[in-house]
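Minutes, methods subgroup
Present: GH (chair), OT, SY

1. OT presented the first of two proteins processed in the latest run. Sequence and structure tokens recorded below as shown on screen.
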Amino acid sequence: MKQNRFAILASIIVLATACACSKPMEAKIIPSGGSGGGEETLPVVGNYAKEILSLPATARDHWQIYQVNPKLYGNSGAFGKIQERLDDIKALGTDFFYLMPIYAEGKEKAIGSPYCIKNFKEVNSSYGTLDELKALVNAAHAKGMKVMFDWVANHTSWDNVWITEHPEWYEHKADGSIAWPTKDGEWKDVAQLDYGKKELWAAMEDALEYWVTEVGIDGYRCDYAHGVRDDFWKEAIGKLKELKPGFVMLAESDFDRMFDNGFDIIFDRAMKRQVISLVGGGSLSNFATWYKGDQDKAPAPKTKLYFITNHDDATEATPAGQFKSLDGSLAAYVLMASLNGSSMIYGCQEAGNNKTINFFNTQTFNWNAMPEFTQKYQAAMQAVSKLNRKGACKLYESGRVLFVLYENGGLVAVNVSGSEVDAYFPEPVSGKNGVPTSQKFSAYQFQIWK
């Protein structure tokens, strides 16, 4: 009898229950003929959460990406130290293990940026050897993760061999000297490449293909992608996808034209601004309207990339500072990661990092500072990874709780406010399969059902 009762509970119980507050929420399930509800907090008078958006079924990809900054692993041996953390990284539901630049760094005029590349086909010796990098990539593959490298096509360091061997591959100033990038600020530590030179295309494509054939990577995240000519990307990406079918390209760019260039994922900084607004009291209905328009711009199976921080953002503010608290930052990321797109964790946010991090600086990060918070991240991301997001999707609101409901299996509820609220549930799932009709949500509490 106990086994039968357990089987019933297992078939209807919440896939994952998570609370961004310090005290986890109890899932009070009352089985009744295959359905049941939790403890009700509001009178049942036919009230339900309000539908604010309906989206059709999509074949969109949903990648969970984990960004690794090798400079957070000390002055030497980063590749081996990162490899030791692969189980923790995989536990976050990671599909793509993404390494920031691992190439030899320039020294001339340099300011410590890993995006100042001295040699596109050489490993940064302070991180380890090529064999150690291969071992890291192979270990990630063995754990079921694809591997993505960072790529810098727009510029090189001032001591890159191309400077002396092929100065014609660079843009030049009126006085004949090689120019530095100036389109989005002056980056004087690097030299601007000139994609009007077709010989440069061949050299850059050769370097891109090197890491695919030599190390076996599965994708590139391309830095400042919109700074490089569209026709170059179309050619280079076509060759990469021919070389390795299924190769994934991520553009660090918010320009929708990057999809036309062959990129599979592009950045969506607007999503972060929208969710910051929600946490600050913004309209859930307005968010839904914006989200629909945003989705319309990404042709399936391609996606936009959502995040609460990355290496650039982390130099200016912490997730807790931008989303009211650590709890608010976790709730914000759960919401983003549950939507119909791809999402990225910057390796440190799951550890509850409470200080800014300049990615130019090498340091030894403490990954175990807040183990309970990290475990909440892992539990939440594992639950999100099990959502079936291929079917139609609807958004609902009740109070300050935003519900994301997928037709083929999955309900996510997030209280985007720092206050306790009572909320009704969406009519299609209210009181069914372990979902209550109403519930009290504490500040920034989220919950995931399947």
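2. SY then presented the second protein from the same run.
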Amino acid sequence: MPQQKTRQLLTDVARQLFARKGFENTTMNDIAEASGKGRRTLYTYFKSKDEVYSAVINGELMRISSTFLAVARKQLPPLEKLVELLFAHLSLMKEAVERNGNLRAEFFRNIWQVERVRKKYDKKERDIFAKTLEEGQRAGVFDIDNLELYTDIIQGCARGLEVPYIYGRLGFGMNIEVTRPIVTKILRKALGRERNLVL
């Protein structure tokens, strides 16, 4: 337990430094000094700054994943839940990037590293999208002939919208009250048995 707390402290301190100074301008010495733990302790937990960065991204993705799971547990009709999940995905990614200040640029510059850490969370998210689509299919609300493909498309769309959403370029900065009915309409047309879909 003390080891876990120390690792978490080092990760939290690193995240704050990365957010304030950026990844490139933060050294392992900075992290060791700011944590009050020293270089020897830091290197016991992390071999390199890249490892620390991966731990920071992992921590952010854990936060996102737990919130996303809470949305998935809501008792909502399938279409409403799917819309809620898509907006949760985008909002949580935007919040994570904005919360981390200067790390925002690194998030996009080191996208390969983010992708590597992100794989297991993407799998969890994909399972949630698939379950929601399956619920709609069983309820006779969604007309889906290939669950795997539809799931890939929904998740791919969510991921493809992240950068424009984060930078406020999606729909020229339209707010959620404007975009939500449009997204609902698109999903209703793409997935639904029109006569059964009421939202």
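Chair's summary of item 2: The two ends are 47 Å apart (CA to CA).
Next meeting: continue with the remaining queue.
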